[in-house]
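Go through this pair.

…
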Amino acid sequence: MPERNPTRAVCIGPITIGAGHPIAVQSMCATHTQDVEATVEQATALHEAGAGVVRLAVDSKKDAEAVAEIAARCPATLCIDLQESYRLAVDVAPHVAKLRYNPGHLYHHEKRKSARDKVALVAEAAAGNDCAIRVGVNCGSVDPAVAEKFGDDSVGAMVASALEHCGYLDDLGFDRYVVSLKDSDPRKVIEGNQRFAAERPDVPLHLGVTEAGLLPDGAIKTRIAFEQLISRGIGDTIRVSLTLPNPRKPEEIRVGHEILDDIAAGRFRSVPNFGADRLNIISCPSCSRVENEAFVELAESVRELTRYAEEHALTIAVMGCRVNGPGETDDADLGLWCGPAHVNLKRGPESLGSYSYDEILPRLRAELDQLIES
């Protein structure tokens, strides 16, 4: 394995990342957190497949109440994704090893309260319960106030947001944190992490290509980013985000370990350039935020439907939930974000309406044809 950046050590339950420790592979449950039986089963399967950390989404009091039982019954080291409900940190921190929050989601609640004060609540909950924190910055959900300052420089906005929140945690005296900067474009992931590492070489980095999509493309996009970053010593833990049915979620762990083994052995692969000169389909990993499991089948159907357009440099985004769906389809030429019974279709940031799962594919085809003609 190439020589690593001199990041500090961060303990996450029984594992330690940074400071030259082995790169840990992570994943996220796709089950609904309130379904304790299914979540324990999947978290255990991910743990047994080699996941160092398993993440659960918590977006309500009922989700938070389920975490205690899941933690008691599951051998996995658990991280909680706080989604838009940062205040639930207080409820879940006693039961888990890490809390993850997205700086771009903090403004949704208690808008009169400053972001720094909200981070202080999360940090206090973490410090009082032996938890680490991940500051998880995503391309499509950067705080609008930060994004506005950077205009078209979405990478600059991600880096600025991450640095700002590192400053908050530093000022609070909390240094047990890691950072992630994710985009669906591996080139932006590479650039963002390089820029951040140049500014804060001490902070461990969690690497991932968000919404990498279906196999095999999702693994290839992820490999592009990981090969370029880890070979430069950047990266302390990784997540491979693939669109998979629930029973196949452990494949994310297998792919992650394969990539790490190849990099360690010097086996680098020649890969295509995604997004520059061909159709690029991005889709989010099937996590517990998905409100209709038909989302995975829809993503597969979109890939099959659009094969005729492979030579056109267009991006189609298929998102499985209301949390990331609206914002992270804005930059796509055509975007679909899926609700319980309907799929919202967008052309860039413009909404084109809501359609049933049976209606959406013909409507998508018509819009794609119009884009190709224009």
